[in-house]
Description:
Elements: H1 11-22, H2 35-43, H3 61-75
Amino acid sequence: MITSRPVPSFLGPLFLLLLNGCATDRFQVEPSFGEAVQGTLTQQIIYPQGVPVAGWQGLDGASAKAVMDRYVAASVSPPAQTSSFSVGLGSAGSSPMTVPAALGTTP
Length: 107
């Protein structure tokens, strides 16, 4: 029968220290790493020092109201008035139950 002996507690940290001595730093970056990305991001900013403040340039009240009135008139239209009796009915010449002739059957 094989019996196991307990491992001394100092061997674990000793093994890690020895293994660390074999490791090498493979990831070495140059001092200019990332400068191209930062330069590209900087070039995309319109005002790097902030937006120049030259006073508010906007519409006066009457012009703004006219613009909003035109917007509301163009975008909001009331729904068409329909009678509850005309729902599902076609025009005078067509019937909603007609089968198209392309299917090969006639009503």
